[in-house]
Amino acid sequence: MRQNLFYGGLIVMFALSAIGHFAHWDMTVQFIISAIAVVFVAGFLGKATESVAHYAGQRLGGFLNATFGNAAELIIAIFLVKEGLFDTVKASITGSIIGNLLLVLGLSLLAGGIKFKQQFFNNQLAEHNATLMIMAVIGLFVPAVFVGAEHFTLNKDHFLSITVACILIVSYILWLVFSMITHKDVLADKEMNADHGEEPAWSKGLSIILLLVATVMVAFVSEWLVHTLDSFSDKFGLSELFVGAFVIAIIGNAAEHSAAVMLAMKNKIGAAVEIAIGSSLQIALFVAPVLILLSTVMGGQTMDIIFSPIELTAIGVSVFIAKSVSRDGTTNWYEGFLLLMVYVILGVAFYLV
Asked: Which of 72, 167, 190, 220 has the fewest CB within 10 Å, making it most exposed?
């Protein structure tokens, strides 16, 4: 009965969101309908990912969820880059990183910790994730510091941005090789690979098809929702920085929110951490650099990798607290609460800018 209601709501809200977009309904109405539709579609994506993970393993499932969850953000960002809206792109990248590290991970630890007193995942994986997060911070901080040096021309700025982008992409690709091929057994998590006696919702083939369908639906609904943001933000007096770093990021991370929390409440905290931290790493080490490289081949102005001091501070703070709570491979509800409080602090600060 509950399943029927969910899928009924999914179809109805997706259809209403499409109708509202193409029929040019009031922007506020479109925003509300599309936001509700995102919740249903994200839930659908989470179910499909969990079913795929049953066959592929929770680590690969977490990677797939992060990848498919970031697909909508990447598509939206590509259109923003094409329009030359680089500041909005950087704000959304910042919001996605801190949203995954603080909001998604925080909600997962809180929800899982309330149900289970203490949860465990592979501590070697936690150490590697922490190192990669620091690598991402270095890749973003160094250009911002050196670009202000004397005789640092625009051409040098672009060369440094492209160089750092290429290094980050190579680092991320080799991390996938390291974690999923050469050192797969070392980083394996028994809890992540346990099926707890559960049966998958669909067959392997159907699960993959539905995962692709869910991803396409997320992309469409996200685009329709973002289409309303300018009018919505103007109506409520929200800044471009706040909208990019929080509103767009929360919407774009909806899939990760539902999937990670759902897995954490099933005591699969390793998979939840893989989704939250893995998604942040993917954004910082792959998506952002890819956007920089794409801007060079689209013609016009090239997007640099120079983030503002506010954005760098938010990313640095998020990495520091996330590294602190996840480095030992154990989690509890209070650590989740602390992550959420840091997210609230940053949210208030960004709102007031």
From this structure: 190
Q: Dihedral sign for Cα 287, 290, 295, 301, please.
A: positive
The pLDDT tens digits of the residues spanning 58-99 come to 667 667 767 776 776 777 778 778 777 788 788 888 888 898
3-state secondary structure of 330: strand
> Which element (helix H / strand E) includes 92?
helix 86-98
User: At CA 262, angle to CA 56 and CA 44, rounded to 5?
Assistant: 70
- Asked if 240 and 68 touch (Cβ cutoff 8 Å), the reply is no
Other Cβ atoms less than 10 A from the Cβ of 115: the count is: 12
Mean pLDDT, to the nearest integer, of 207-225? 84
Of the pLDDT bands very low, low, confident and very high (cuts 50, 70, 90), residue 35 is confident
Instruction: Count other C-beta atoms under 10 Å from residue 343's C-beta.
Output: 23
CB of 68 closer than 8 Å to CB of 284: no
d(CA 333, CA 62): 21
